[in-house]
Amino acid sequence: MSNRKSKHNHPFWEKYLSSKYVGFDLDHTISKYHKLNLLTVVTTCIAKYLVNEQGYPKEVLGITFDPKIVVKGNIVDLEKGNILKLDSEKKISKALHGDTFLHETEIGKEYGENMILDDLQGFSNKKYLVVGTYFEICRGFFFNRLVLMRENGGLDPNKANQDFMLDLVSSVAYNFGNYDQGEFYPSVSQDLPGIFDDNSKDLKQLFQFLKKDGKKIFLLTNSLYGYVNLTLDYLLGSNWQEYFDLILYSARKPVFFQSNSQIPFIDEKKQKECSPKFHYPLKNGNVKDLMKFLNLEQNNEIIYFGDHPIGDIREAKNNFNWTTVSIVEELDQLNNEQSDNYSESIEKRKQFWGDYFYCNKKPSYWGAILNQFSDYQTASLSHFLIDLKEFQKFGALEN
Ligand SMILES: [Mg+2]
């Protein structure tokens, strides 16, 4: 079934009509990437960090990214060194170690007969990496390769699996945690057309349509301001701030959405805490102060678009009952409509891991979270724009 099928009578549109604010995540929601290029840049940054800063052997630089090893929705077991796929009951359906899938009896031996990960809460911690973004795909991929490399005698045998992940977390902090450091941001800024899949025409039209419908638009992203500016200057132009009534960055989702978080909003220019305000970039913050500022209680006057099923969607829905729209690009891959070189490997990934949304005729762990916490699912903002136009043409008349 095509996700482009008319959806103008979907219950979501009633919520759309009553909403005042429409918010967006940045990475993979507003911005789309040429994924293989992005993943290649990220893995190169990680490899260089491991060799230059952590003393790993030069062979690590020769690791080339393989898109089938780790896919979104995988759980990386940091103790046992396995990459897992789970069903909606958290039962392991597949476990990859190095290049080899474990037999069911081996999975049973390692995880107990019921093969259920009872202690998984959906967040990454010392025991599990939950793969929800392309950055996490890279970390999971390197973890898998380093475990294999050690087992083949190419790395220090005393290095534990979790030590690899600690080094990978440091590489992320080094390359992505400070805009003036590392190689990631300079690499992206030198090749913007090679990294970003330019959807600027649709973005501008979508924002115009929303404004025409009386919506206030906001940005809520974990990205650093420097990266927000780099991305949106490229996609929307140097006046990009004018598209947004509120600009919230370095937001630390999912913590941002936790009702007990009291992390204040920061005026980074003045280096001090501040109250939320319109038309001014704000760092950090928390959902409770935001709702108070917008004069909204727990209700559905706010719609949020994000691609991370947990950090964006589950937490926004669970804690403050925001209306949620999941950007699920795999919906488009079902229709084979994407044509970049990462998507061309979709069949390989599917042969390796099975269907993204299903697992042994049950929803996959990831698919179940998407279904439970999304009010609406769409493959991209460009697809949503088509649905919105259709709603405005047909649905609004019926309401
Ligand atoms: Mg995102």
Describe the overall structure:
- It comes from Anaeramoeba flamelloides.
- InterPro entries: HAD-like_sf, HAD-SF_hydro_IG_5-nucl, HAD_sf.
- Keywords: Hydrolase, Magnesium, Metal-binding.
- This is 5'-nucleotidase domain-containing protein.
- Belongs to the 5'(3')-deoxyribonucleotidase family.
- With 399 residues, the protein is of the alpha/beta class.
- The protein has two domains: 196 residues, HAD superfamily/HAD-like (Rossmann fold, 3-Layer(aba) Sandwich), CATH 3.40.50.1000; 155 residues, no CATH class.
- 41% of the residues lie in helices and 15% in strands.
- The chain contains 15 helices and 16 strands.
- The chain has a nine-stranded mixed β-sheet with strand order 10-9-11-8-7-1-12-13-16, sandwiched between helices. A five-stranded antiparallel β-sheet has the order 5-4-3-2-6. Strands 14-15 form a two-stranded antiparallel sheet.
- It starts with 11 loop residues before the first helix and ends with a helix.
- The N terminus is likely disordered.
- The protein binds magnesium ion.
- The site of magnesium ion (MG) has 7 residues, from loops.
Helical residues, percent: 40-55%
**How would a textbook summarize the main sheet?**
9 strands, mixed
Total strands: the figure is 16
**In which order are the strands of the major sheet placed?**
10-9-11-8-7-1-12-13-16
Whole-number mean pLDDT: 92
Attached small molecules: magnesium ion
Do you know the CATH architecture of the largest domain? 3-Layer(aba) Sandwich
The CATH topology name of the largest domain reads Rossmann fold
Provide the CATH top-level class of the largest domain: Alpha Beta
> What is the rounded Rg?
21 Å
Shape: globular
CATH level 4 superfamily of the largest domain: HAD superfamily/HAD-like
Give the DSSP E fraction (strand runs of 2 or more residues).
5-15%
Low-confidence stretches: 1-5
Distance from N terminus to C terminus (CA atoms, Å) equals 26 Å
Task: Please indicate the count of domains.
Answer: 2
